[in-house]
């Protein structure tokens, strides 16, 4: 049973500005700032958002801008993305990291299984999402600092942590949205997160995103351990699927 006081923040819960019910064939509305950008990565993102499978599975353009702003300001050395889907969030993160003058690494984990039978875009398939993402990374010129790992996060998280020979400064958990999968990802990655490092959960408001694994993970693993983490739940637009940003304050 979810604690609605913690999860929903009912005194002020923004449902998002999209008032009409979502339906198959919908697309994310491209934000003005993304449209006006002349950066190559922005053009690639617009192309990704034009793909029928980007809605609603990819982070919205507005949520992507927030994600990018977080990474620009936190300036993590090592970033781990658990769940890349078709690569929109990957490009948002990488666009921020590309501004660093120092060496950095973005590691991305996904099963990269063929996407078929998507009820949001009937008849549309993406058989090789890994190739699709690799091609978009290359278009952006980000291939020098991004590593894509195909497989189960249970196997890959310890492997990646060992390979980078350092702690991880920023993690986004957006893979298996079941409680078992989400809590497993958190339990596996948390010991490798830097003191002062960040973990970002996506899809944290189940009333809007339709999944409850991230919310239950927060309720059972985080809100009961406030001495270890600072937590801020963040509303997202135009659909409030939600972020929860954690900062690790003790080991």
UniProtKB/TrEMBL annotation:
MF-aspect GO terms: methyltransferase activity
Region (Disordered): 1-26
Keywords: Methyltransferase, Transferase
Annotated Polar residues bias: 1-21
GO biological process: DIM/DIP cell wall layer assembly; methylation
Residue stretches in coiled coil: none
Domain of life according to the entry: Bacteria
Protein name: Class I SAM-dependent methyltransferase
Keyword rRNA-binding: no
Annotated GO CC locations: plasma membrane
Methyltransferase listed as a keyword: yes
A family per Pfam: Methyltransf_24
